[in-house]
Design a protein that fits this description.
This protein has a four-stranded mixed beta sheet with strand order 13-14-15-16. A three-stranded mixed beta sheet has the order 3-2-7, with no helix packed on it. It has a three-stranded antiparallel beta sheet with strand order 4-6-5. The relative contact order is 0.10. The protein folds into two domains: about 250 residues, no CATH class; about 90 residues, no CATH class. The C terminus is likely disordered. Strand 11 and strand 12 form a beta hairpin. The protein is of the alpha+beta class. Helix content is about 30%, strand content about 25%. Helix 6 packs antiparallel against helix 7 and helix 8 packs across helix 9. It has 13 helices and 16 strands. It is elongated and about 90 Å long.
Length: about 375
Amino acid sequence: MDCYKLEIRQIVDYPRCRIYREFIQTLIADRSIRTGGSSGLFYFTVLCSYANFRTSYRRLDGITYTIYPGERLCRVSELSQWFRTRFQHQVFHILSMLQARGLIHYTRLGHHGNLVKFSIKSWRKHNTVLDYNCPSQKETGFFFLPIATAVELIGTGRASEMDIVLDLWISTVYKDQQVQGSEIGPVVYFRNGSGNPLITYADLSRRWGISRSSVGRLLKKLDKLGHLSLMSFPGRTGSVIYLRNYLSTMFQISDILVDKAEVAMALNLKLTIPDNSKTECEAAACGNICVSESLSSVSKTHIYMIVQKTVQFLGRQGIACFGCSKAKYMLYPLSGDCQGIGEGGGGTAFKLDMYCGNSAIYHFELCVSQQAEAEGGYSDGEK
């Protein structure tokens, strides 16, 4: 019997990005993220989200209009609501800007020019067109946005907060072997050919046309609002950005909590253990973590940290017991026959038991291996 394996990915080689209309509706309604700017990425994406994917008809002011795939007929007041502008002349300025860049074509209709019919010029090239006629829903489904167009728009002027959110979203990759750290979660990668998602505020400042201080304030704001996880590393290393709600929106699966230590390991970055870690670990050891006295090959401070990280990781897998204050954890060394179970045949093997009362309810095997000290390696020498 044939077996099939489903893989969910968003990789660098894809020339376009799938955008869900429901996600765009959420952005339009989110008043905590400001619009404006001059790049036009948000405005163009909004127009794409309302474009027809099949031929339909709409009757306005007593006249029935035929709307073909990639087109949309609407009132100027609707466009003003979508663009979040106060005046009609602002709407026509945005439309004229996008038309001058060769992305759309629009025409004013109606007795007083209060109707607008626009068409996305490259719609048939990047989106499937259905030949039969029926109503076209605007709040459900998805469309494809070419990444080259998004990059071109984001680089033509000062990006707004909404433009930047979309740029981060479109630039995100997931489980791509060409990009480090993408196996852990959906990471922002600006396709510079390096395969490394680390980015500096100076690079983002040039990309978005804003100052470095504005970049820092905006990323921290989006982190606080729950749009992303910003992980900064010391020195000139840079930062890594992971999107929080990407998987649930794009693939309808549970989102992943990304740990900074995991990211540092994936990117071969140095991590230093803070001075107060010993106090915290000793406090945990006095509570629910018990370590065998025979474990002399690895420092107790590091052992406690390993157990804590393991418990946090397993707790994120949905096992409620790992969040219980009554749970107890016991770590034992395994016999010499079990040594070398890790990749490459090296390492020290341990057994981690989780107790509820006097009964062991979960059993795990861990392997701690020594990592050679090298440029970009772990400063504590352990993996």
